[in-house]
Amino acid sequence: MTTYIQELILLCLAAFSAGFIDAIVGGGGLLQTPATLLILPHYPVASIFGTVKIPSLLGTSVAAYKYSKQVKFNFKVLGSCVFTAFCASLLGAYSVSLINNDVIKPIILVVLIGVAIYTYFNKQFGIHQHKEHSIKKQVLLAGFFGLIIGFYDGLIGPGTGSFLILVFIAVLGFDFVGASAHAKIVNIATNLAALIYFSSTGHVLYQYALPMAAFNILGSFFGARLALLKGNKFIRIFFLIVVFGTILRFAWDVLK
Length: 256
Fold this sequence. Notes:
Blueprint: H1 3-25, H2 29-39, H3 45-68, H4 75-94, H5 101-121, H6 135-155, H7 160-171, H8 176-200, H9 206-230, H10 232-255
């Protein structure tokens, strides 16, 4: 078995698992990106980032389509968040070589620990839809957080879906299913923006990206189907597991 085939098998397994996780609560990049860095250490980091954007984009698109059949979208809120997130993700991708990620990661770690504690002790978090804002305020808040998370996705990436779900629940008052559905659409925009930048600068390894995309799509299909079947309580538990895994990942990066 050639080295390329061995690498491809491992990458496709990682892509399938990432697609499955990402379709439910986001955070698939926490598995897919480190796995790709580990399996392909001989390529530049920018090429790895560009390569994983293709499976992430296509897998997220499949999950979004599955959700769209059963979830009613708030297009005003969604449009605001998508627009700002897309623009900010382009800027984030451009800034990969300009900003030291080591400065940002400790801040993210503290935020994630707070999220995990709050979600665990607030049993009703994301179980029911609860809106306290007017549509106008929701649109403005969605646009603001789209800027922050979009920039983060272009710059670092892993965990973006989970952060989007958190915003749609904690800030905008959505339940877990609705938040997951809306987060997928925004994540499509951020992935597309970053991919446009990385592909234009020659940082995409298509011989790996396209097969990985097929397996990410397959994982996303099953993940979204399971999430819609099981509902909010199941997604809440899965969300906690992924957030805890994210905390461990960032703690490792910060403390090593």
